[in-house]
Amino acid sequence: MPVYSSALPIVHTLPREMGKTVCPASWQVKANFPAFNRFKYIYGGEAFFTCRGKRIALQEKHIYIFPAHCEYVLSHNPAKPLSCLWFHLVINPSLISECIKCSINSKSILHPYIRILENLVYQKTGPVDIFDNIFQNIIHHVGKLTTVSCITDRRIADAMKNMHTRYREDISPAVYAEQSGISMPHFIRLFKKNIGLAPLQYLLLYRVEMSKTMLAAGASVKETAFSTGFNDEKFFSRIFRKNTGINPLAYKKSIIMP
Q1: Which CATH architecture has domain 154-253?
Q2: 170-205 pLDDT, tens digit each
């Protein structure tokens, strides 16, 4: 049974990966083990979340937080396009491993947060930490109303936090295992049990997600590779393509989709 932690999560809102959108007819997201969670507030349309063979219709006036570290598809009926407020978040230590939702109405404790987010996105103002603080409170309240899966092993949560802080550095997962006070084989087993991926897989995925922010901000592929811990442009391009389906330059030229 998933466990909810009462502690406020640490949330990092990815810069520029947010908006209020009516999705184009061709819109579809094929998520391949993303290292971030998608957050959406649904205004209208006919949209679906499909994961592990199960299809869920998204409802109006609901918050949805979609899982990290798994494969899923978001799609919609082009005749009834999805209209939503959307953000990309990195959440730690709370790891949402399945789609969760929460109904929002004018009397909901979360309703004012949605209005604030709408205004901030519309005005295109406010430092990222304002968004982070808002989402910390939203996720905390959503967790009280829904089932949220969390990392139950403190050593793995601490290792993830260190990876997030030091992902630019050339640090082997073996170092994180040593810092956790456990052997590398045991560290890998615990990491897979809590996250669903091996430590190196997760670290590379996290670097890819951080690289997207740099590319979207206009950084070159070479600069991005060396600033996100890959230290080799060809290796970076190979890992990026493996996890996103396109190369970094193509991603840079593309429009960021919600």
Answers
A1: Orthogonal Bundle (1.10)
A2: 898 999 999 999 999 999 999 888 777 789 988 888
How far apart are the C-alpha atoms of 95 and 115, rounded to whole Å?
A: 26
Which structure tokens are listed for 246? 């396109």
Name the CA dihedral angle for 147, 151, 157, 159, rounded to a multiple of 10 degrees: -140
CB 99 within 8 A of CB 64: yes
First vs last C-alpha separation in the chain:
31
Going from the C-alpha of 138 to that of each of 7, 60, 111, 124, the distances in angstroms are 13, 18, 10, 20
Please report where in the chains the tokens 């959406």 appear, as a residue.
40
- Per-domain residue ranges of the chain: 10-145, 154-253
Range 10-145 classified under CATH 3.40.50.300: no
Bridge partners (DSSP) listed for residue 74: 29, 49
Same CATH topology for 10-145 and 154-253: the answer is: no
